Amino acid sequence: MHTQDRTQPKPGKPPVVNLKKPQTFFLANGLKVLVVENHKLPKVTFKLTIDNPPFAEDSKKGVDELCSNLIGNGNTKITKDDFNEEVDFLGANINFNSHGADASALSKYSGRVLQLLTYGALYPNFTQEEFDKEKAKLLEGIKSQEKSVPAIANRVVNALAFGMDHPAGEYTTIETINNVTLADVKANYSARFAPENAYLVIIGDIKYKEVKPIVEKLFGSWKRANTPKITYNSPQNVPFTQINFVDVPNAVQSEISLVNTLHLKMADKDFFPAAIATYILGGDYNSYLNMNLREEHGWTYGASTVIGAGKYVSKLKSTASIRNTATDSAVLEFIKEINRIRTEKVSEEVLKNVKAGYIGRFVMQVEKPSAIARYALNVETEELRPDFYENYIKTINAVTADAVLEAAKKYFLIDNTRIIIAGKGADVIPGLEKLNIPLFYFDKFGHPVKKPTLG
């Protein structure tokens, strides 16, 4: 059993954080560029992000993942080996995916590193050979996870919470990967790797007036694609609390997840209260769930809660891997702790310590260029106030116990929650049936089935 640091940082005087505002400009193709000069160290960081809405891939689920894995695996400007050798020689770091790219380097090499980034991102060379390699890897990964209880649980959680026809609910299978061709990957790239929803954040030892013409030259010829905008119906939470059970006969413990969907935006006034409520319920060693399920009962190595926030619908998920014999008891304790945070005000001491932890982590992040890039991007893409991060500490300190209670009531919808359990039916179904919670059965892919035969 791994040990965790149980000490809490003691609240002190809140530090003052000065975040420099980016200087911005647009290219004619729609690319928005944000530059934050910081001459403390001779380094520069580039982050290109394509902020497209999520989309469903249906029978070809996996095309975007394959596209992601292939970008940067060769380009039409220089050979793959020459590219990799030069990146190594410059001591740079460059990464690509289907939603952008990022790079970091010494500032004296910044012009060439940005050029290499554009080679990989804007001029990819999608070859059949590389495609076959990446496809084989993905298929191997799926096969290796076939009997994994956590993998089955994650798949079913999303499929049931969001619906299989929703971008967040669909999943890759051997069949969907085998449906994808190299032509599909190329079409996916052409339709979606486009500048109209793109942001380039540049941070570090670089001058705005010097980098602007370089960016205009390197990215000016990137063509718009008029990426399709597709909307999806919002997932509906269940009308009553229920257990959704997946029988996995090889399971040595039960994967229990309590899930409801929500739409929490970072700009919402209850964003911080909801985040703090989540942390108190299942965010660290001292959380309600961990102290109950791990410390008091010894049923698990750890329990946790995560909440999604952003432009699109997301989920609240409380989860733990629980000993088979304790599965039914643990379900009741999960419900008890979620009800507790919805009905009882958190103590001032717990609230103070959680706030101090949040502030401490934020202050550590503020020193990192990658975090500054993320913050600058969030202000743009999440429609945050320009002073959102400057006021971060003040906003957290202003959160009250009443606000935490209200946020928990609003988002932790225990009366509309799916309790999704992947476990060994023969061992745990008899106990679950005694809980008087409606029980429904699903297969490993989230399709409804009859109750398994227990033998």
TrEMBL record:
InterPro entries: Metalloenz_LuxS/M16 (IPR011249), MPP/UQCRC_Complex (IPR050361), Peptidase_M16_C (IPR007863). Residues 179-357 form the Peptidase M16 C-terminal domain. GO terms for molecular function: metal ion binding. PANTHER family: METALLOPROTEASE. This is Predicted Zn-dependent peptidase. The lineage of its organism: Bacteria, Pseudomonadati, Bacteroidota, Flavobacteriia, Flavobacteriales.
